[in-house]
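Open question from group meeting: does this chain pack into something compact, or does most of it stay loose? Before anyone orders reagents, we agreed to write out a predicted structure and look at it together. Recording both the input and the output here so the notebook holds the full record.
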Amino acid sequence: MVKFLLWCILFILCWPLALMALVLYPIVWLLLLPFRIVGIAVGGVLELVSAIIFLPARLLRGSDRNAMVQRSR
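C-alpha cells returned:
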C-alpha cells in the first residue's frame, strides 16, 4: 500500500517518470530473478554445511538432555 501511495505521489509530481517506472519494474524484476534463485540455492547450501558442522555438538547435547530428563523422573 505504501509503494502504491508513493507511486501516486510520483505520478502527481512527475508523471513521465512514474510511467517509466511502471513499465520498467517488470523488466528489472525479470533481470534480477536469476540472482534471487542463486541466493536461495546458496543459502540452502550454507544451511546444509552449517547443519553438518554442528551435528556432532547437537548429538552430544541431545544425549545430555535425555539423561537429565531421565534422572529427573
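Observations to bring back to the group:
The helical segments are 2-13, 15-72.
The CA atoms of residues 31 and 71 lie 59 Å apart.
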